[in-house]
Amino acid sequence: MSTVGDWNEAALELDGIVASFDEGEVSVDELFVKLERATAIIETLEARLVATKARVDELAPRLSRVLESE
Amino acid sequence: MDEEVGATDEVFEVGAFYQLLTARLESAFGRRHPHWVRGEIAKVYEKGHVYVDLVDAGTTSSDTKRPVLNAHCWATPWAPLKKKLAAEGVTLTAGMIVNFYGYVDVYAPQGKIGFTIVQIDVQGLLGDVARRRAELVARLSAEGLLEANKRVSISPVPLRVGLVASPGTEGYSDFTGQLLNSGYAFEIVLVKSAVQGEAAPAQIVAAIEVLDQHLVDIICVVRGGGSKGDLAAFDDERVARAIAASATPIFTGIGHTGDESVADLAAHTRAITPTKLGEEIAAIVEDWHVRHVRAPAQRVLDAATAIVDEATEYVAERRRTMIFAVRDRLRAEQRHLASTRTSLLTHSRHLLSSSAQSLASHRALLGAYDPKRRLAQGWSIATTRDGKVVKSIDDVTVGDAVSVLVSDGSFDSTVNAKNGAP
Q: Fewest Cβ atoms closer than 10 Å to its Cβ: which of A19, B119, B132, B237?
């Protein structure tokens, strides 16, 4: 399994997989491979999102303090 | 022509002469009978009592014959008069046109005929002060000095504040209180100065010049409320010129609402009180802070939240899409397989049925060619001794023994002759 690229690259690849499903291009033999790849991408994106959310949650109160300062 | 001198004319001692002179003057003017006298102050000197040399307006000191009235006001009447003048911002100075109310007196020890002031026309003086102020303003304006400091650009965040003030005064406290309570890190560089009295203008000028070299963002000249006299230093021409010459923006907060000094007119920015001035400077910083810190912070926070929300929704949507897409794809394959299975069964059954029919047909056809049926119909089959079926007269020769098969058995026979087909 190849590594997942950055967010935009990963989203592009994921969109391609979804499009191939939408267009009925996926054979049964390919289905598992594509599903496995899509799952890997989604899990990677979710992990990055969780990490990003945690950082945003850490920084947001600091920004809020800037906004509340008189 | 020599004046004739009478031998019997009375000869006065000096003192007696002054007594006579005083009597004559009192006879002419009345004893301590006051009169109004108008003139221009040529010289003024105060030391408990105040002494004023009064001349006719418009005359010059080079005119050696111009009349001079040595007027004076004794300390007792001068104190309330001075207070009254001070309250209106008036200090007796050379060049002023004044109306003095007083009487003639003779001061023999110095041989002077003088004028004792008992009253001063304050309203007249005020008019003169106003006129002189208006002339000063017009002169400064004509020289462009009222606009000079206004053209100096101001720092967008004026946190280094030069301050010309008198520590401990209400105006100082009001102003610094606003800055210190603003929550911003103002750095106040104070140069102490008197803010009222004769020494004030020179000190204010010196303070402005010092701060102008001190790399502060703005210079604030601050003085709390008071009488016009208290604020007179800020109408001083030297102060106005120092403000105009400053390379640093000068902000003023002088007096009460309604007071407007010449310094205010020359300043870059003028607030109506020290408190207001502090508020306005804090507001400048606050405005910058909002536009360059708080608003961007809000935009960053909003954008970060939006990006995370959008990304979260994207991943969730893609997860759902993949689940449904795979499920749909598998269901489609299941349906296809089921359909194929059904089709195969149908075709198989049909094939079996048609094969059975074909077999029966063949069986019936074969039945029609069964030799037994032919034998039963009277046909027979002849075979040679070695079992070969005789199909032609060439298969036997005369004399050969042959076996003849009929429907219910066989019998042996001998070929007697061979005859060709008719």
A: A19
Out of A47-51, B126-130, B212-216, pick the least confident: B126-130
Provide the residue ranges of all domains of chain A, joining segments of one domain with +.
7-68
Calpha distance B86→B93 (Å, rounded) = 12
Tell me the pLDDT tens digit for each residue of B334-354. 898 899 999 999 998 999 999
Are A49 and B322 a contacting pair at CB < 8 A? no
Question: B329 contacts in A (CB within 8 Å)?
Answer: 21, 24, 26, 28, 31
pLDDT, averaged across chain B = 89
**Domains of chain B from N-terminus onward:** 14-130 (2.40.50.140), 143-283 (3.40.50.280), 377-406 (no CATH)
Rounded to two decimals, what is the model's pTM?
0.59
Cα distance between residue B191 and residue B214, in whole Å: 11
Distance CA B191, CA B219 (A): 10
Which residues, 6 or more positions from B398, have their beta carbon under 8 angstroms from its beta carbon? B415, B416, B417, B418
Question: For A21, which of B294, B312, B329 is closest by C-beta distance?
Answer: B329
Contact state of A52 with B183 under an 8 Å Cβ cutoff: no
pLDDT at B253: 96
The nearest CA of chain B is from the CA of A46 a distance in Å of: 7
Neighbouring C-beta atoms of residue B364, cutoff 10 Å: 9
Euclidean distance between CA atoms B105 and B25, whole angstroms: 8
